[in-house]
Amino acid sequence: MLDNGIVRPHALLLAVCLAAGCSPAADGADGVSGELLFRRQGCTQCHGTAGSGGSLGPPLLDVERHWTREELARYFADPRPFFDRKPHLGEISKRYASRMPAFSTAEDERLALADYVLGLSSSN
Question: Is residue 42 part of a domain?
Fold first, then answer.
C-alpha cells in the first residue's frame, strides 16, 4: 500500500471499497461500485435511494424475477427496444411520470450497475 511513504490511489480505493463492503464483481473497470453508479446516474431520483421506488419510477426490489445481468445492462444502454419484448414494462411505465433514460456509460459500468440493481431485493 505504501511506496516510499506514499499511498497509491488504487490501493486506497481498494481499502475504502473493502471497508464499505463492495464486491469486486459489482465494480466497473475503474473500481466504481454499482451503488455509486446508481447514485451518479441519478437513479435515486426516480427509484429511491434503496430502489424502493417513488413517484417517478417503480421499485427495483424484484427485478431479478424478470432480468438477467447482461439483459439489464443492455436495457440501461437503450431501454426502448425492451418495451416490445417485455410487455410488463409498458404497463409499469404507464403508472409513472418519467421514462427510463438510456445511459451512455461503458459496458463494464452498466454490468456493475446491473449487479447492484439485481442485488437490491436480497439486501433489503
Answer: yes
C-alpha cell at 95: 403508472
Cβ within 8 Å of residue 48, ≥6 positions away? 54, 59
Would you say residue 7 lies in a domain? no
In this prediction the pTM is: 0.71
Residue whose C-alpha cell is 465494480:
27
pLDDT tens profile 47-69:
998 999 999 999 999 899 889 99
The proportion of the chain whose per-residue pLDDT surpasses 90, expressed as a percent, equals: 51
Which residue range is the domain that position 108 belongs to? 25-123
Residue 3 three-state SS: strand
Is 83 part of a structural domain of the chain?
Answer: yes
